[in-house]
UniProtKB/TrEMBL annotation:
Superkingdom in the source lineage: Bacteria
Protein name stated in the entry: Methyltransferase family protein
Record InterPro entries: LicD_transferase, SAM-dependent_MTases_sf
Signal peptide range in chain numbering: none
PANTHER family named among the record's database cross-references: FUKUTIN RELATED PROTEIN, RIBITOL 5-PHOSPHATE TRANSFERASE FKRP
């Protein structure tokens, strides 16, 4: 079977039309296409792999994140990225706006679609000075890994760019490092990864976790852009290389060590000893041919292994990111739970909001003179309020993941040492959690409330209506209050009060359930 690269054809494309739906073409063979607006790359696709076969041709639909920008005039250029051949050029009017189309973020910085079809600031829109902090961070993080006994190296797209091109890949948007542990058991590799995280945190870096052996180091570029430096753990076992993310292939350790070097933007960095075998394991035998629309096709067996060993900490995070991004410009009202807590606990010293979202309840309590802690595992949600309240001693925001036991125990123990009386609120969170996450939430609340007479004030969707309330709140599906009550009892708690309430008039209105829970026997 031939690869997509082998099926690529050169020469012009027979383009029928370009409109708000997409690019309609007639092509009997596969073709990799770069799409540029006014000379700047915006998107890349494979015609038949990504297109929709129709009677009148193949339609490459505009990806959803790009559609809001399609109102105006632009010069659309279709190019073969492998040869640079211009396949088609046409000035196109989208919608009624007379101005030029600008695909930019609110700060006016150019965006394009990466291989995951996310609109990001790719490297081809940045200058050398702007990415210097990222290169500095690569050197520092490699040094930190050496200090804990690991010889790390450039991996994935960063290795590909360095080995093939000598620089960062223009359509890429982050940097990748990898390492192969001396351990061969997943548990030992996990413990090592958390030791790495502590070392990086001690160096002053902000670190978030993808999985038990993969993490992101946040690096601020010269203009403040938050760029990710991903660190993927790996190990050898029974002649197989397991590198977090995509790789589980037969391999030899001496194909990795001793490490070689390659130039990246003029700096020398370590790479695996046998770069051809490594990049073949990552991108296939045709890795030398540029493919800005490349998609990893990880075998199901590899995904199952990595899920079982290492994943489960980020379940639902992308969904919450999408929810908060979609609602970022909508007012964030103070919840009924916040009002209930203020009424029931007039002497409250600390309010804790599990799943604080945009931080409206946290800000409301702080403005009333009560210290408030906002906890959420999607920092994008509370970032704006955290920046606004950076100098307010009554406000604290903290990354908190109910699927990660270290967070559940450490953060809850920290909260338990804050001034009391304390109360905990949790609004429209548990509907998005499985049983493990719900029990961890109850465990957290119990720890946070230890030593005080406060209670957990819980609100969740108990009946899904057709009033749009579930979408507005991010609650995907209803949860049976009897299930929650049973889990409360299992956690050693008791439901002091339970109320069900329609949030909209009429028979199609959604219903919420509010519970007040404590663990004071």
């Amino acid at each position: 079977m031939k690869s997509l690269g082998q099926l690529r054809r050169s020469g012009g494309l027979d383009v029928h039309r370009i409109d708000v739906d997409g690019v309609l073409m007639a092509s009997p063979r596969e073709q990799l296409v770069d799409v540029a607006f006014d000379g700047r790359r915006i998107w890349s696709f494979w015609l038949h792999r990504d297109g929709e076969e129709r009677e009148d041709g193949v339609l490459a639909r505009w990806p959803k994140p790009l559609r809001p920008f399609l109102d105006g005039v632009t010069e659309v250029t279709l190019t073969d990225p492998g040869t640079g051949t211009v396949l088609h050029e046409e000035t196109v009017q989208f919608g009624d706006h007379p101005g030029r189309i600008e695909v930019v973020n609110p700060a006016g910085r150019p965006l394009s679609l990466d291989k995951s079809l996310k609109l990001v600031e790719t490297f081809d829109t940045r200058d050398a000075a702007q990415v210097e902090p990222l290169l500095d961070a690569i050197e520092e993080v490699l040094g930190a890994l050496r200090e804990v006994g690991l010889d790390a190296f450039l991996a994935y797209g960063t290795a590909l760019g360095a080995i093939r091109d000598g620089g960062l890949i223009g359509h890429d948007s982050d940097a990748d490092l990898g390492y192969v542990s001396a351990h061969d058991h997943p548990v030992d590799v996990i413990r090592e990864s958390f030791r790495i995280q502590r070392a990086l945190t001690d160096m002053g870096y902000r670190v978030t976790r993808y999985s038990a052996i993969a993490l992101k180091v946040h690096v601020a570029e010269s203009d403040g852009l938050d760029r990710g430096l991903d660190v993927f753990g790996g190990f050898m076992r029974d002649g197989v290389l397991y590198l977090m993310g995509e790789i589980a292939v037969p391999f030899e350790r001496d194909w990795i060590h001793p490490l070689g070097t390659a130039l990246l933007e003029g700096r020398e960095f370590p790479v695996p000893a046998d770069t051809d075998r490594f990049l073949t394991a990552t991108y296939g035998p045709h890795w030398r041919v540029p493919d800005p629309a490349y998609k990893f096709t990880t075998p199901a067996s590899t995904i199952e292994l990595f899920n079982g060993w290492f994943r489960g900490m980020r379940t639902g995070r992308a969904g919450w990111h999408g929810y908060h991004k979609r609602t970022i410009n909508q007012p964030a009202p103070v919840s009924a739970v916040a009002h209930q807590v203020a009424e029931r606990h007039p002497d409250l010293a600390t309010y804790v909001d599990i799943g604080c979202g945009r931080g409206a309840d946290v800000a409301w309590f702080a403005d009333r003179g009560t210290s408030a802690i906002g906890l959420d595992f999607q920092p994008f949600a509370y970032a704006e309020e955290a920046e606004r309240r950076a100098d307010d001693p009554r406000v604290t925001f903290q990354l908190f993941n109910l699927l990660e036991l270290r967070h559940v125990l450490a953060v809850s123990a920290w909260v338990a040492r804050t001034p009391g009386p304390r109360a905990v609120g949790c609004v429209h969170v548990i509907e998005r959690l499985g049983r493990r996450g719900r029990l961890n939430m109850l465990r957290s609340a119990r720890m946070m409330l230890a030593g005080t007479s406060g209670a957990l004030h819980l609100q969740f969707l108990s009946e899904r209506g057709r009033d749009g309330y579930p979408r507005r709140t991010g609650a995907r599906k209803a949860l049976d209050p009897a299930v929650v009550a049973a889990e409360v009892a299992e956690s050693g708690g008791r439901v002091l009060e339970q109320v069900r309430e329609r949030v909209s008039p009429g028979p199609d209105g959604s219903q919420v359930c509010r519970m007040i829970i404590d663990w004071n026997a």
